[in-house]
Amino acid sequence: MPKTKFHALNDLTIKKIKPTNENLKLWDGKGLYLLVTKSGSKLWRFNYIYNGKHKTIALGSYPEVSLSQARELAGELRKLLQQGIDPIRWKKEKELKRKNTFRAIAEEFLEKFSPNWDSSYTKTVKLRLEKYVFPLLGDLPID
């Protein structure tokens, strides 16, 4: 069980925190906390209750996701909760939509088949997709 501490976080506190023998939760408030693992990773998490169940969603790692970005993300998730939307389900649906775009499928196709092609042909296909196809169709869902 991780140790927990509560106080409004700031960047200096986050930068100075060192890993301990146990995971450490540093609470920022309103469900947002920074999990500092034994290995030294600093991971943003957001706790919430949906349909009577306690849930936690990952928001990214520090410093890739800054304190202000984590607070902003947590605020967006609280808005989803106010609308009756489960943030974990919303995130999964958003990720699925991103994976099912023309661009994602085309990139998967290239990854699978381009090793069998001549390198100049692979380069030509990629350039044409990026220049002509992706701007028009890239973000469209396959379905």
Structural summary, described in words:
- The protein is α+β, with helices and mostly antiparallel strands.
- It contains five helices and five strands, in the order E-H-E-E-E-E-H-H-H-H.
- The protein has helices at 11-16, 67-82, 87-99, 102-113, 119-137; strands at 3-6, 24-29, 32-36, 42-50, 53-61.
- It has a five-stranded mixed sheet with strand order 1-2-3-4-5, with helices on one face.
- It is elongated, with a radius of gyration of 21 Å.
Listing every helix as H and every strand as E from the N terminus to the C terminus, the arrangement reads EHEEEEHHHH
User: What helical percentage do the residues reach?
Assistant: 40-55%
Shape: elongated
Q: Specify the number of helices.
A: 5
Instruction: Give the class from helix and strand content and strand pairing.
Output: alpha+beta
Would you summarize the structure shown here?
By secondary structure, this protein is of the alpha+beta class. The protein has helices at 11-16, 67-82, 87-99, 102-113, 119-137, and strands spanning 3-6, 24-29, 32-36, 42-50, 53-61.
Question: Main traits of this protein?
Answer:
alpha+beta, 5 helices, 5 strands, single chain
Topology:
Elements: E1 3-6, H1 11-16, E2 24-29, E3 32-36, E4 42-50, E5 53-61, H2 67-82, H3 87-99, H4 102-113, H5 119-137
Parallel strand pairs: 1-2
Antiparallel strand pairs: 2-3, 3-4, 4-5
